[in-house]
Write a structure and sequence with these properties.
It is built from 15 helices and 2 strands. By secondary structure, the chain is an all-alpha fold. It has one domain. The protein has a two-stranded antiparallel ribbon.
Length: 332
Amino acid sequence: MNVLFADVPVRGLVVLAVFAAALILAPAVVDDYVLSILILCLYFSFIGQAWNIMMGFAGQLSLGHSLYIGLGAYTSAALFVHFQTIPWIGMLAGMVVAGAAGGIIGGLGFRFGIRGVYFALLTIAFAEFTRVAFDHFGWVGGSSGLFLPVEYRDDSDLLSLRGAPVMFYYVILAFTAGALVLARLILASKIGYYWLAIREDQEAAQALGINVFRYKMLAVVLSAVLTSMAGTFYAFYYNNLYPETIFSMHKSIEILLGVVVGGLGTLFGPILGAFLLTMLGELMTDLAEHIDLDGVKQLFLGLCLLVIIVFRPAGVWPWLARRLGLSGRRDA
């Protein structure tokens, strides 16, 4: 417990407690539409935190993270549809599959000294290859899609992830809280310091005796495993999967946008960025419907990213935390 809250000002702890309480109590006071938006906010918060572990903490750029969402989603959904395997076991299987895929990508890239933009291109290549493969994989529906049976019920069955949106809300809230705690513990550990050293100067880290290959592989595999959990959630929340959607480059870009806007390499940046972009995106969608103009949402998000890069290149969270005195030394 001391590790979690070390160096965090009292004001920061108060704000965190109020924010957590508001999220816990939200389903009691909001309607179904707002609840669906909050679910999206938390989904992108969780998945952004998973991507942030790989890029923000360890400095390994991935532009094909949709691969791990798709593998987690399809593994758990296919096992559920064909063998009636409960989602939590399917999630574990998806984590193994995604972790193996991350290990293969990391192993190939790092063994051959592939870095930076070239490593990012490698991640895109694997995601695209998998998308094409699943388009022709009849056992999971191919390009026609894989559909999960939907049961309309008032009660919630957490074991089989069938139930009302409120149940899904608390599931993704628990995921997000767990990812935040995990990231905080990692940053305060030896692994966190090793990742920081690798991110800042890989050659210097290696000269200090850090096993660069091992710790970069750990970052990739851990990020892949966490991201696959979001894939399982996606599958059972939406109940349908299409390769061109789940493995798309667009979905990979969605993951990283919130992190970049909120603050790359920070703990609360992915959460702030996800809430900002998701809520503003919904406002722009409503505006586009009223003025009958397509592309407003995409244009607005592009402008937001441009403004952040020019005026707040470190993201919104570090600036906000400094202004309000919310963060400590290592959770900026």
